[in-house]
Amino acid sequence: MSNKIALISTYCDSEEKLNLLYENILTIKSLDMDVLIFTPFKLEDKFYQVADYIIYDKENPILD
After folding, report:
1. pLDDT more than 90, % of the chain
2. Which pTM does this prediction carry?
């Protein structure tokens, strides 16, 4: 397990943003880092396969 983690807070409400998020996750993983995603949207299964941690919170109190 790596000792570094990238925290990604997302608001991916379009296909373009989702594609970019996926590419960024793969790039970060290639640097031997874990990835934690915080999102107000449910993500496709492919994200759960590549990210180490995903926090889904539809209320997203950070944006308030």
Report:
1. 77
2. 0.82
